Amino acid sequence: MTTAVGGTGLEVSRYGFGGAPIGNLFEEVTEEQARAAVDAAWDSGVRLFDTAPHYGLGLSERRLGAALKGRSGYVLSTKVGRLLVPRPRTGRDDEGFDVSAELTREWDFSGDGVRRSLEESLARLGIPSVDIALIHDPDDHLEQALAEAYPALAELREQGVVRAIGVGMNQWQAPLRFVQETAVDVVMLAGRYTLLDQSGLPLLEECVRRGVRVLAAGVFNSGILATPTPGSTYDYLPAPAPLLEKAARIAEVCERHGVTLPQAAMAFPLRHPAVASVVLGARSAEEVATNAALLSRPVPDAVWADLASEGLLAEGSEEPAVRAE
User: Fold this and answer.
1) What residue stretches are annotated with the NADP-dependent oxidoreductase domain (predicted)?
2) Cα separation of 173 and 164, whole Å?
3) pLDDT in tens, 54-90
């Protein structure tokens, strides 16, 4: 099953492959493991693949480009805003990726920076153009991203270098400005429309009004919605006790209906008509197979009704979606 991305002609699969783990996020992934993960995603029907220069200092882009070479009928997304530049020291990357640090990231949301970033991404991916380009995490550079990065991407869209443009962030307020003030096609929203956090609902409602599609990422809030036990993380920090308690209550409701918490966490964002795909990172073929199996299992409407009646879902997020075309 696929969903159209506005008038771009792109169709994305409901399950999208997130490429951060194959960029050695937190731990090393071998070339063989990375290729097997992409192959498994393809065999599971995944046709949306997401990456970024940030992921492993370009390693994710190189691996994904190599794995997709010779295939067709997929949608590939990458990002702009961080340039990779040489640095005169050795050691390991200090931003969570298990890679050597011959390169470093420099924020650059200027028009020239965006064009250079995309050109270098295309070289790493081994392709002449890309389907989706997202302005990546412009939290501290929002005005420049709106005034310079967006117009540069819009020009590249007109030139056919990219087919759809947008923004990818871990907050909803800044993407809302992009949706209201520009002609973006897509938003990647991480962690702000999940079973634990529906704060992004105003953004999603505006996206429906304006025909902008949402790619939902971070659906486990970095771990707590996969395993809600002491030591779990929420947004990459130790989860506070109230959130652990809420996650456990959600899990109890799910279990009453024979549904696991991860299964519900994946299914929840797709109920909203703005959401076209859930993007799930995976570092192995086994993780891909698990994700695909969970997404294929329907979650009874009674789960959402019970979560709402117990005050565990925000008002407006419990209703079944009527998908916009």
Assistant:
1) 16-308
2) 21
3) 999 999 999 999 999 999 999 999 999 999 999 877 7
Neighbours of 28 (CB within 10 A): 12
Q: Of the candidates 60, 63, 17, 23, which has an alpha carbon nearest to the alpha carbon of residue 40?
A: 17
Q: Which residues in the chain belong to E strands, given as ranges?
A: 2-4, 11-13, 15-18, 48-50, 75-80, 82-86, 103-107, 130-136, 162-169, 186-190, 213-217, 233-234, 237-238, 275-281
Measured distance CA(64)–CA(246) in Å, rounded: 37
Domains belonging to the chain, first-starting first, are: 2-309 (3.20.20.100)
pLDDT of res. 315: 79
Locate all alpha helices (DSSP H) within 182-239, ordered by sequence.
Answer: 201-210
Reported residue count of the chain is: 325
As a whole number of Å, the end-to-end CA separation of the chain is: 13
SS3 assignment, position 277: strand
Q: Is 272 left (phi over 0), alpha (psi -120 to 50) or beta?
A: beta
Q: Which of 55, 150, 193, 234 is catalytic?
A: 55
Q: Which residues contact 10 (CB under 8 A, 6 or more apart)?
A: 4, 75, 131, 132, 163, 164
Output phi, psi for 317, to 5 deg: -105, -5
Yes or no: say if 150 and 96 are a contact pair by the CB < 8 Å rule: no
Task: Give bridge partners of residue 12 from the DSSP assignment.
Answer: 3
Whether this model's pTM surpasses 0.90: yes
Is 15 catalytic? The answer is no
Distant-in-sequence contacts of 85-89, Cβ < 8 A, 24+ apart: none
54: tokens are 């940030």
Task: Please calculate the CA angle 64-168-243 and round it to the nearest 5 degrees.
Answer: 105
Q: Does residue 68 contact residue 37 with C-beta atoms inside 8 Å?
A: no
